[in-house]
Amino acid sequence: MRIGFITDPLDSLKIKKDSTYAMMAEATQRGHELYVMQQDDLVWKRNHVYAAMSQITLRKGSVRWYALDPASEIRLSDLDCVVMRKDPPFDVEYVTSTWILEQAQREGARIFNDPRALRDHSEKLAIAQYPQFLVPTLVSRSANQLHGFIDEHADVILKPLDGMGGQSIFRVTDSDPNRNVIVETLSDNGRRSVMAQRYIAQIRDGDKRVLLIGGKPVPHCLARIPKPGESRGNLAAGGTGVARPLTARDLEIATTLGPELARRGLLLVGLDVIGEFLTEINVTSPTCFQEITDQTGFNVAGMFMDELQAACAAQS
Q1: Is residue 124 flagged as an active site residue?
Q2: Is the pTM of this model over 0.90?
Q3: Which of 33, 58, 223, 279 is the most buried (most CB within 10 A)?
Q4: Short-list 138, 154, 146, CA closest to 184
């Protein structure tokens, strides 16, 4: 197969833990040809979607982990599949990329995750479809609504709808002297919507990343345990990742959501679960492949490549 990856700049990838690298390494072992491009390489012209892309070869034991052939413009539909792995921010340019990739689909390109599903799926708000798994939650840009929620639940988490990696997440209590300025700042004085969730004390045991691949759960999650004094478990915020088998509740959530998300074209999904509660449904570029594999021996990238190959064959 000829597989294209839309990535962030290659030199920004930390290959000892990067999931995109794990996918590439697994694909290389299987003999697939790999091509890389970035979001700004996508172009629509002459009534077709192209990208300036380079064939990539992974190199072990050298200063640079990859070698690139000279870039050339190739129609996305000439590849066997394209894997969208651009990290957020989910901004206008990201949305524009999904429009371009959707046009490439019309020309016969096979793209994962499905660009329309990426565009239509809010990683924060999608949990509203599964109220049976939620802690009390509010989404509003009204200061009165947000303060009322804080008063009702006494201890809450506030976060922007477009954040990633634990950025701009605040734990706020009803007696917090900074609550007014936090609400004003996060909501931009009522111009931006904010998600409020009742604080879940089980965060001390980890914010679990449960991976769904092809609608099926990886049998181990990665519990991201906050560092002392923190209420955020995100690895980017200093959390420690500990792989664990899925609990009965994790499996209940995963097997309920998995088939429907797969039907929408979401080949790879990262569920965030704290204690018994679903808190986010991540679809842009879910991670934790290498941490789970290193600690358990389960080949997450192998499961992903099996499902990618099957999905490509099904769309051929």
Answers
A1: yes
A2: yes
A3: 279
A4: 146
